[in-house]
Design a protein that fits this description.
Shape: extended
Order of helices and strands: EHE
Distance between the termini: 42 Å
Number of strands: 2
Radius of gyration: 18 Å
Largest sheet: 2 strands, parallel
Strand order of the largest sheet: 1-2
């Protein structure tokens, strides 16, 4: 919407989470993943600075590294800079909490 209508004040941002979540590691699935990332690269090339594309994936892209930047998050490099995490033993994990 933001790309096609400059008068609509919405960000030109696309966030995609886990595009390969349902894939296995066979030849067909690796080919499909390469095609998906090729499409992402086509979008990025077509829109350039007008579009910010963020892809959250557990594995590196199946294309060359010059196509995509990589940012890894952890306790020393948090997703939100300046917001320190107290450490894994200092906060309750959601999966360990009961539904009660």
């Amino acid at each position: 919407m933001g790309l096609d209508h400059a008068d609509v004040l919405v960000p030109s941002l696309l966030v995609i989470d886990s595009p390969r979540k349902a894939f296995d590691n066979n030849d067909s699935d690796r080919q499909r993943a390469a095609e998906i990332y090729s499409r992402f690269r086509t979008l990025a090339d077509a829109y350039g600075e007008r579009l910010q594309l963020i892809i959250a994936d557990n594995d590196p892209p199946p294309l060359t590294n010059d196509s995509f930047g990589k940012v890894e998050f952890g306790y020393e490099n948090p997703m939100v800079p300046g917001v320190d995490h107290p450490g894994p033993d200092q906060v309750p994990r959601v999966e360990n909490q009961s539904d009660g």
